[in-house]
């Protein structure tokens, strides 16, 4: 796997990043998915040596700091993390690359700060998850209830890294080697075992989401060319119908459907790298 240089960025908290293929000509800022970390892009970096990939870790993820007590995680606040990640790009950013949560955040950032995004590639995302208006009140109640209950919850403990990898595989359809890459950076020692290092607040249900109309308004404001890569086994929150209706809002785009599941950039990095090489 590609050697990575660990970096620090000062944002709302101290953020970490891993830089792969240091010195390569194409400069990429990469944003990982929910509960993932910078190692999400290690397989892609190995398959794409022409790209210097700076993989940022959002607050509460990977080795980045957690938010202070009383704070919660919202999509809009990840845009501050992206701005901090941009300061690591000493020669500028040629491509903003996002997977899942990272792709949703990149979508919002490109809409808000078009001058900073010359080109964007999204894997399994184009904007955040929308709530139908009729479930808004229930979502609000559920989110607040989960916030209130969080303090009484115990962290899940694992006897070994292998046990944690098995838990990740039970939650996501992905290759075991992909799960291990993520898990090894996602754990911390807890007594005689291990627990997740990510902030438990990340797992609280979002009490407030945008409507589909609002998300499509964001997407229509994106000025750069966009490459969308999606798996032919789409997750329930990013269906083919949603993808098609949103990509129709883009001014300049291309779409590629590849065999695989949500973490296809890890499970089949050669195929994803081939698309990205052609795109740039």
From TrEMBL:
Keywords: Hydrolase
Superkingdom of origin: Bacteria
Xref: InterPro entries: AB_hydrolase_1, AB_hydrolase_fold, AB_hydrolase_sf
GO MF entry, a single one: hydrolase activity
Annotated Gene3D superfamilies: alpha/beta hydrolase
Signal as UniProt keyword: no
AB hydrolase-1 domain sequence ranges: 28-275
UniProt xrefs under Pfam families: Abhydrolase_6 (PF12697)
Keyword Hydrolase: yes
One GO cellular component term: membrane
Protein family: Belongs to the AB hydrolase superfamily.
Designated name of the protein: Alpha/beta hydrolase
Organism for this UniProt entry: Pseudomarimonas arenosa
